Amino acid sequence: QHFASLLNSISRKGDVITRLGGDEFAILLPSTTSQEAHRICERIRKICEEDSIKPICLRPSIALGDATQKGEYQNTEALLKEADKRMYQDKNKNKVKETFQ
């Protein structure tokens, strides 16, 4: 709920936010260039990194993947599959390692 509220607070008119399942969300950004989509992803990442869930001061990590419909994907499923692949690449690249003693 916290993350969904966060996404809703920064979405633009016409953006569509949907939960895919578990902790995965998709944001459809109509009439958005690839560069604009990257800026939006970085804005989401920055806001999430600065955010904490109170009262336990939990700092969530986030992995983002994007794909732009420019005719190279045959359908929406292929587009989502590419975004999902990129999200897992981001997740593996930016793994947060915590050590507790």
Automatic annotation (TrEMBL):
Residues 1-101 form the GGDEF domain. SUPFAM superfamilies: Nucleotide cyclase. Gene3D superfamilies: 3.30.70.270. InterPro entries: Diguanylate_Cyclase, GGDEF_dom, Nucleotide_cyclase, Rev_trsase/Diguanyl_cyclase. It is an enzyme of class 2 (transferase). Its EC number is 2.7.7.65. GO terms for molecular function: diguanylate cyclase activity. It holds the Pfam family GGDEF. It catalyses: 2 GTP = 3',3'-c-di-GMP + 2 diphosphate. This is diguanylate cyclase. It comes from Candidatus Infernicultor aquiphilus.
